[in-house]
Amino acid sequence: MQRRLVLVRHGQSEWNLKNLFTGWKDPDLTERGVEEAKAAGRRLKAEGLRFDVAFTSRLRRAQRTGQLLLAELGQSGVETIEHEALNERDYGDLTGLNKDEARKSFGEDQVLLWRRSYDVPPPGGESLKDTVARVLPYYVQEILPRALRGEQTLVTAHGNSLRALIMVLEGLTPETLLKRELHTGAPIVYDLEADATVSAVRDLAASA
């Protein structure tokens, strides 16, 4: 039985372009982001991949990425499940601030601590540890069982919510997880064993 899970970070959003902390705010994709999503679909099509189920967040940049990707595959009718558990990390009081302006207001070291530590949240927001605690139960209860049944499973979500899944799939520590960069619109393909361990992983950004 083939058990395949594909993760895709959404294409560039309007707030990515403006260098703003986005979190749970809901900007749309830029023109570049639309093209990144379509390109992801073309890469997956070239690999011969098709999907039985798709999961995404409640935020439209992730939803549109999935829609555009599936349209490229001719699979717009695939069952798609939206859930806020897959939303981006909540940046709290940093949300909407330009990252350079935030450094001037709070100091370079403080902003770096909020962005790159595992368990220190920004004021009113989530740490990466908090995000992992939100995402993983949903993965275990809803996403993983579908993949283990042999359903080809797509997840289009966000940099930090996907890092939570990658932490488990690739066996990363909190320290190595923080260094894991995810390109926008770049599919990562995991082949799973029956015990949910990974037998093979391919980053299609590397082969683009």
TrEMBL record:
Keywords: Gluconeogenesis, Glycolysis, Isomerase. Substrate binds at residues 9-16, 22-23, 61, 88-91, 99, 115-116, 159-160. GO terms for molecular function: phosphoglycerate mutase activity. Its EC number is 5.4.2.11. The record marks H158 as: Transition state stabilizer. It comes from the Bacteria. Pathway: Carbohydrate degradation; glycolysis; pyruvate from D-glyceraldehyde 3-phosphate: step 3/5. It catalyses: (2R)-2-phosphoglycerate = (2R)-3-phosphoglycerate. The active site is at H10 (tele-phosphohistidine intermediate), E88 (proton donor/acceptor). One of its GO terms (biological process) is gluconeogenesis. Belongs to the phosphoglycerate mutase family. BPG-dependent PGAM subfamily. Catalyzes the interconversion of 2-phosphoglycerate and 3-phosphoglycerate. Homodimer. This is 2,3-bisphosphoglycerate-dependent phosphoglycerate mutase. It comes from Methylopila jiangsuensis.
